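**User:** Once you have settled down, spend some time on the protein underneath, comparing sequence with structure tokens, and judge whether sequence predicts the tokens.
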Amino acid sequence: MLCLACGADNPGEHRHCRRCQRPLVVPSAAASEEMGEWLAKDAPVSLDEHLLERVSVLEEALQRTAEGVARLAAAVAKLDRSILLGQAGAGTVFEMLEERGVVPEGACRGAWRDGLERELAAMELRERFAGARERVAAACDSAAARRLLGEAERALAVHDAEGALALFERALRREPGNLPLALFLAEAAFAGGDGSRALRLCEAILAREPRQLEALVYSGVLLHERGDLPAAEARLREALRRDRESFLARFALGSVLAARGRPRLAARQLEKALALREMPQARFLLGRCLHESGRAAEAIVHLRRAVAADPDLEEAHYLLGLASLDLGQRRRALASFRAAQRLNPRKLHYQDLVTFLSGRPTSPLPPVEGRPAEARAAGERRRGRGHGRGALRAAGTALRLAPDHPTVLISYAMVCLALGRLPELETAARRALALASGDMLKATAAAALIAALRGAGRLREGNRVGRELLAGNPSSFAQTIAYYELAYNLAELEEDLDRALDYARRALDLAPEELRQFPLAALGWVHYKRREYAEAVDCLSRSSALGPSSTTLTHLGMALLAVGDEKRARGAFRRARSLEPRSGGLEERMMECMRSSSELAARVQERGSE
């Protein structure tokens, strides 16, 4: 037989080509007479005909694939339309329930969102266990533990994540030596943000197997998140001794060394990590370490690659501006700062007023008592120490205990604001605004809601909230906040800057002494947008003198650059960076990257296949 792929002659009894190992399907003239007298021995067979036949088959397959893709696209479009109709229908039901006084719309939307999150978490857990099932079952010796694992799988099938986790934990108590099960539970707790539980499981695994790679990496990352940097470094170095090619261990070790103030050593680890895998956050962190080591030119190379891979990495744009300014590249620096500024509304860098209002000693918020007060105080302490997830859990506990207390709602909104959790922030702010009885409380809730809408890029909707706050003859305090927010939003929209200037001046005229820094900052930013740079420098300098913030100082630096005062601009930018809160910045994003990394799952699979 002649092979259709390579043309080689093969014995008649062969089913695959001896040269290319492809299946033999067409008999040739060299076939035996046993195949029939109808095939002449010397009948010429054209290889071109066979190639043409193969091309025809491939064209048909390609056409079927194109038809399948078209059907899939139509199905996706239909599904998208169904989802849109479902959301519209649910929104209508929520509005009707609120109109009839049954349940507030915000509460309905929050409950709906919580239900979706639970369903998605259960699906993720089911997929995670599917990858670990064989290893867990192989290490399971007890019939009772196997029964519990089966019940847990059935719970996952109906999306009962909490019930499944409880059954998995019961199975682990039956068999404490089942390390694959313990590792699966640690991974699930780590991905779900329950660091304390994940760390306890990792410690139990390491007590039985001190060099277990995944437990070493997980515990190192968790110790970093907790703030125990020496212990985190020790764990991650041990993980690297176990596997020199672990990207996640090197990336995490680089971040730990950077947090410990050792940028040169951190840069070495990050360079090795990037040789294993490209990640914009790691590239940015390397640029930051190089900049802190005085190597601005090298830092610029890596920062440019970081923003090319992730244009929304605002910290990289900002640091790229600083590094360019260090090299005297004023135009490039200003372009980078403007790019960072354009990302600011989505990054919630205009939360200074809300933070100020919620933490004033003469706060208008009503007092909280009992268990909600204890949970709220715990959340405030953790937020102050930069433990965002712990603060969110504590604030959520307070909210469950007192769901209709405006002070608890605003405290919860502030934690969501710091963590960038926009949907929860918007829901809490709307509920607080609906419950607000006093004028000052309503102004504070409105400021939080406008900050949430600005963070989502919904500036015009935020303007509607500001105009609603101005309706009904409000106090000068509420008018100051409304005009301030309207001025900032119009400046960001870069439209109707004359009205923005008028709003900023009204806010400044009405502002009490303790609030003057905010309308001054808004007025300076409007002047900057109007290209009135000298006026912008004056207003922003006065605002920074009254109460410096990272946002105001960044804007001041940009205005100083525009008037050519590079020396003062450099000082303003460095001071702004020193005031930038660490908990909501790069470190929080790095933890999210580590949680979403597939490195650990890949390592577990490799270990299982050995």
The radius of gyration is 31 Å. The chain has a mean pLDDT of 79. Residues 47-99 form the longest helix (53 residues).
